[in-house]
Amino acid sequence: MPIGTIHWLPHRSSKVGRQFILTATRLRLMILSSALFLTGLAALFFHIGGLNERGQLTDNRRNELIVFQGELYQLSERVMNLRLQLEEISTREKQVLVAGAGLNLDFSQLIPQTSPMSEPPGDNMFRYIDDLEMEIMLMERLAAAEQMAYDSLASYLMGKDTELARIPSIWPVDGIFVSNFGPRIDPFTGAVRIHKGLDLACISGTPIYAPADGVITFVGWTGGWGLNIVVKHSDRISTRYAHCSAACTVVGQDVNRGDLIARVGSTGRSVAPHLHYEVLINGVQVDPEDYILREGSDSAVF
Questions:
Q1: Measured between alpha carbons, how far is 290 from 211 in angstroms, rounded to an integer?
Q2: What is the 3 state secondary structure string of 31-100?
Q3: Cα–Cα distance between 291 and 169 in angstroms, integer?
Q4: Rounded mean pLDDT of 118-139?
Q5: pTM (2 d.p.)
Q6: Mean pLDDT of 191-216
Q7: Which CATH class is domain 169-290?
């Protein structure tokens, strides 16, 4: 049954007007169509909004992952720095043990030879974390071993202040390191010879200081050493200072660590001003670096 009529009148006279008879059935269909259209439109907007939200969430997680990777790499850098510090500590500890107690302990087996942490973490971060944990565990083992060694050394050194003051544990002069202990090319002959001390280049006249307490046992000229001085620190340990330009001590004089004993020169078999420094154990030259623990005349450990 018709419930109304809709007339459509065109603006142009050339167009023919139309009328639309509205029935109850047609009205219900129009309402239903409008409802379906609006529902579909709302569902479309909701879906688009969900996609945007999920995309934003994915971007946030990706950013968080990048930040996490960066923090993990920074942590690995700290672990590597800790490893380098422990290696330096173990080297100095070995010197302390050799100089102070005559002990030669090797911690190199506790130090990993390679590090998997040199590259930033990739997608497999769980493996990277496992490697990091392994690196930390090895560092803990090394630290525990060094702590035990220090405890043993501390027990040994208790009450040995006098003996320790006679160990040559500082550099005798401020200079430039030019030649170490061991084989080297002889500057005069070009042949390979064993260099039985350390050479430290300095300006002529630079002060030479006693690296430990002792007594002067020799002052004079000896062949290639030129003007040289020998200090006896104990029944076992002596030191020699060669190529001096002047002696500031005499035989029989007691000296303490840091006292002025001579001045750098270029006497004897020398190509330029420098100090040739030797440490002798029972009359045999050994590497002085095994006994040098700190730089400077006022920075002794013992």
A1: 13
A2: HHHHHHHHHHHHHHHHHHHHHHHHHHHHHHHHHHHHHHHHHHHHHHHHHHHHHHHHHHHHHHHHHHHHHH
A3: 5
A4: 68
A5: 0.49
A6: 89
A7: mainly beta
